[in-house]
Amino acid sequence: MSEHIKQLECFIENLRSDNFYDAHEDMELLWFKRRFEDSDEIKLLKGFINASVSFELFKKGKVEASKKVWPTYLKYKELIHNIDSPYLDTYNLIIQEIQLIKQSQNKAE
Question: Can you give the pTM of this predicted structure?
């Protein structure tokens, strides 16, 4: 199993466990090494980081701060349509997981 897929799976598991800070750290390990690349895939990873930050802020009761971070995720999420990657299925799964969490948060507001 590649290191990339391992980190993606850790990210998903931490999202599912409401460990949003840890999810952020998982994704940052992938993004940080490649952060200077002008790549839609790298921007998507940054978007996933922003989603986990938004969720962590919400979890801490910082709803307004959470709402400020969320649009960055939405902007980068759309780049999924431009990506040709062996990890595309996993990225789509992450988007689904993020959407489920966001729906849950919306109901809690």
Answer: 0.95
Does the pLDDT at position 109 exceed 90? no
Q: What secondary structure does DSSP assign to the chain, as a single string?
A: --HHHHHHHHHHHHHHTT-HHHHHHHHHHHHHHTTTS--HHHHHHHHHHHHHHHHHHHHTT-HHHHHHHHHHHHHHHGGGGG---TTHHHHHHHHHHHHHHHHHHHHH-
- Average confidence score pLDDT of the chain: 96
Q: Tell me if 106 sits within 8 A of 70, measured CB to CB.
A: no
Q: How far apart are CA 3 and CA 40, in angstroms?
A: 20
- The mean pLDDT value for 72-91 works out to 96
Round to whole Å and give the CA distance between 3 and 22: 17
Rounded to whole angstroms, the Cα distance separating 55 from 102 reads 8
Per-residue CA distances from 34 to 5, 8, 18, 68, 105 (Å)? 15, 15, 26, 25, 31
